[in-house]
Amino acid sequence: MPALERFFGAAAGLSASVISRLTVQWQAEREAFLRRGLADRDYVYCWADGIHFNIRLEDGRLCCLVIVGVRADGTKELVAVADGQRESGDAWAELLRDLRRRGMGAPVVMVGDGALGLWRALGEVFPQTREQRCWVHKIANVLGALPKSVHAGARKALNEIIQAEDRVHAERAIGALVADYGAKWPKAVAKVVDDRDALLTFFDYPAEHWLHLRTSNPIWVLS
């Protein structure tokens, strides 16, 4: 209670009874959200990510699995929020199966980072959904495998891939990345080459969608 008063102000009227009433209300709203039907939703693109908190529980650190979807008319919605154990494949699969049981159809594209658990689960539950790997996470992973002395040049080379005018030019830019950095830092370059197809999926969709499909950042920006 004192912490809430410091946050909202003492004038907020956060008495014990008010807190109890709000807690019951919020729990009911959460349960309704988790049970709502999804048969009338036509999600075209979905973004998935695991949000980790520095709260250590008996079973490990708290992690929330989050999915945001965009419908055919462009409406963006929070699809799911669920507890997860370190983004495991089983946790993601349970979440996806629950969405399917409630009527959700397979989205056309799922956007996410390199967490293998998500992609294994997606292949089990919605095998027809295409994968798009998040470029924000990928750039961070590639730069993390390179010495800081070459970060500026490598970042420019990666941006040449991301901002290519079409897939053909993106493939050429990947070739240039391999030529410039592959011999000396093969592990860093392999992070792009090995995921080439999943990184370039966005080119198969309307150009005005590319900016949004290249990253899982919509998870953080719901408005």
3D structure, described in words:
A hairpin with a 2-residue loop joins strand 1 and strand 2. The chain has a five-stranded mixed beta sheet with strand order 3-2-1-4-5. The longest helix is centred in the first third of the chain and has 20 residues. Helix 5 packs antiparallel against helix 8. 46% of the residues lie in helices and 20% in strands. It is α/β, with parallel strands linked by helices.
| Spatial strand arrangement across the major sheet | 3-2-1-4-5
Order of helices and strands: HHEEEHEHEHHHHHH
Query: Based on DSSP secondary structure assignment, what is the total number of beta strands?
Result: 5
Label the overall shape: globular
The whole-number mean of residue pLDDT values reads: 87
Extract low-pLDDT stretches.
Answer: none
Number of helices: 10
Fraction in beta strands: 15-25%
